[in-house]
# Entry
Amino acid sequence: MQSITGSGLPNSHQALLKNQHLLSGRLALLGVASAQLLPELALGGLAMSEQAGVFRAIEHHEGWQACFGYDDTTLAANSYDSVVVFLPKARAELEMRLALARSLAVENARLILVGEKKEGIAGAIKQLKAVAPQAYKVDSARHCQVWCADAFESAHGFRIQDWLGWGRIECSGVSIDVAGLPGIFSQDGLDNGTQMLLETLAEEPVRADRLLDFACGAGVIGAWIRVHQHAQEAPISSVDGVDVQSQAVICARETYRRNNVAGTIFASDGLAVIDGVWPGIVTNPPFHTGVKTDTSMTEQFLRDVRKHLQPGGELRLVANSFLPYQALIKRHIGRVERLREDGRFTVYRAFRGQ
# Structure
């Protein structure tokens, strides 16, 4: 086995490798962040990731059953002797991940929880001990803690529907129901950027019979467009959506179903595996930068979007105002204007040239 010190794996994956002597029998990994972990492990088994790109990378590793998120039909109940739970970023999600772990475990299985200190592993132990009071710490390594629970009590019947919740948002006189899962869709309501985008769509709709919502999240934009069009007695558009995260895809499909929206929700890391061209694309893309602004992600996104936008088609996009979008949109898409700005967010409208 190659050295784990310089492997480039996430710290939590390195910590598991250091302690893989704890693993035995049939193995399930929940929350894999890098497929490069798999060939380093002596055992094969099930590897679940919520990130579409990681999931597709796992599919290429022999000896492993790749699963995409919590509703994958290949998740085999009560089948695994060792279940590893990587700490999710959203603490609210850990309870759901532990419930899935219990449903996958055989009786008297071993549960292992691994997480970084900066991600809150210390605070997560209370959640772990609520389902496994016998859990104990076995190691501190790679800025992580590794916890183990022997004779872990299994459970039956994990259903993602049991974890779904519903919120209601309103914008420009139109209300929709929005599905939520732990870590997906803020119950505090509509974020300011999306609200500004929707307000411009109410005032100046994108004239297209087919739309794509990039980074669709819980399906807010597509559902709102459909309900707004119905309220205005306007022609109804189908709105497809794409997102990288399993929970977002699940929520978007549920939101569409509840609000009677026509459209397909795709799982993809960006637009890498998406085919098709649309006459209109709308998006609140998830770009977050630190002190140093890096435009490379923006440029790649706009190059990819251009390939999927019909000549003459419209891109409607909201972004933080400090990001240098306008010149980049003009370079990659075509003529661009600012429809709305408030100092914090800006909504751009651009039309693809020939």
